[in-house]
C-alpha cells in the first residue's frame, strides 16, 4: 500500500532523513521508535507531503505521490493524528466528530457511529465539551475523528504523550483492532517502546535520521528495541 524508497528530506540545505526505505501493507501496524531529535516527526511530514522529498520516492496504492500535495494524499486515503490531543475545546465530543462526519452527507451518521464504536467512552461523554476531557480521552477523540474518514492508512505521532497508563492500554488495543478488524495500515512513531513495539507487526529504530535496527514486533522484541535506542 505505502512504499517509501531511499527517502531523503530535511529543512533547507540540512538533510535530516537519510536513505529511509520501508513498506506498509493493508492491516499492518508499523512502529518507528527513537529518542528526541531522531527525526521521527520529520519523516512523517515527508510522508504527508508537508516537507519535500529531496531524494527517493513515496508510492501509495500504486501511485507515485512523491510530489503530491498533502490534500491529495489525504483524499487518497491517508489520515493523520498529530501530537497533542487536538480538538475544539469549546465544542462537545459529538460536535467535534460531526465537524468531520457531516462532510459525508447521507453517510454522516453511519461514519459517526462507526468511529464511536472504536472508543465507547466517547458515546458516554457525547455532550461534554472536549476541553473538559482528560488528555487520554481527547486523544481517543482525535483518533475517532480520523477514523470517520475511513482511511486506508492511519499515521499517529506520539499518541501517548501526557496520557495516563490505563488509557494508553485502551489506545493500544484500539490501534491493534483498527489494523486487524478494519484492515487499516498504521504508522506509529513513539518514544515509549513498550507501547509501540509489543503489539506492532514490525518496528524500526530511528537514530540521527537513519534506521539502525528493525525486527518483528511482539513482547519479546521490546528489550531488543530499547537496547538499540541506547546505542
From TrEMBL:
GO terms for biological process: L-amino acid transport. Keywords: Amino-acid transport, ATP-binding, Nucleotide-binding, Transport. It comes from the Bacteria. The lineage of its organism: Bacteria, Bacillati, Actinomycetota, Actinomycetes, Bifidobacteriales. One of its GO terms (molecular function) is branched-chain amino acid transmembrane transporter activity. It comes from Bifidobacterium jacchi. Gene3D superfamilies: P-loop containing nucleotide triphosphate hydrolases. InterPro entries: AAA+_ATPase, ABC_transporter-like_ATP-bd, ABC_transptr_urea_ATP-bd_UrtE, BCAA_Transport_ATP-bd_LivF, P-loop_NTPase. PANTHER family: HIGH-AFFINITY BRANCHED-CHAIN AMINO ACID TRANSPORT ATP-BINDING PROTEIN, HIGH-AFFINITY BRANCHED-CHAIN AMINO ACID TRANSPORT ATP-BINDING PROTEIN LIVF. Residues 2-231 form the ABC transporter domain. Belongs to the ABC transporter superfamily. This is Urea ABC transporter ATP-binding subunit UrtE.
